[in-house]
Amino acid sequence: MTKPLQAKGLRKRYGELEVVAGVDLEIAAGECFGLLGPNGAGKTTTLKLCLGLAEPDAGTIRLLDHDVPARAREARARVGVVPQFDNLDPDFSVAENLVVYSRYFGLPAREFTPRLPQLLEFAGLAGRAGAKIQTLSGGMKRRLTLARALVNDPQLLFMDEPTTGLDPQARHLIWERLRRLTQEGRTIVLTTHFMEEAERLCARVAIMDKGRIIAEGSPRGLIARHIEPQVVEVHGPALDAWAARGASLAARSERVGETLFCYVADPEPVLGALRGREDLAYLHRPANLEDVFLKLTGRDLRD
After folding, report:
1. Which domains can be identified in the chain, with CATH numbers?
2. What is the pLDDT of residues 148-206, one digit of tens each?
């Protein structure tokens, strides 16, 4: 089966800054692929290039068997997009937002109208078809934006931070909807700052920094390859005096503010040294994708 998205050697420069610096992507049909990176890494620009919304300085893009940007319009007819920020029309009701959007794709009313109840059900808004956008919660708006991206029955969906700003209940409901889409055989390209989200949803992820992909693989594979399997986080008033001992017991350690992160294969020596210490608190957990992300991209803030 032809891969829905293939990009090779993508480059894009704005003035003196090269924001995409030789990116290769190959997305398999039916997979959820995560593109991760700190602010300014080049994720959103990469998505724009793949959609033909920006023209690359170098490289090739093949989107749903169409060359981009030359035939981007034809490719986008079979693509759904969930933008980073909701851009629903406040002048229209829930159902009207979907109907008006269907007209952008030239869908006849006789073809789209029977699908409208299915889209409202998917968004969990079957009883809110006539509601105005201003009356919806943030989670409802996000689900409606996701349903709107399905108006043209796309094979491939691009989602730019789909759960940013949502509470845990709304986020979990969006995750359930995204799993349903992949079970239907649709392909998803997802950018997110939530490493738990990527770990839960994505078959593969690529970590991007400074315009380049610096690691790629399954979430579990990246954890096994780049980080020790166990982490003990230690903090408390006696940390300054204890930090050197903790570091000596760990395979690798990192002091971040008032917390010492001890990365270990066997946590028992570190845990044994902490037992009975009322002047230290600790958290013992398995390593996760966020540990990998921070190791590879650093802990400095990106504004």
Report:
1. 5-218 (3.40.50.300), 228-286 (3.30.70)
2. 999 999 999 999 988 888 889 888 988 999 999 999 999 999 999 899 999 999 999 99
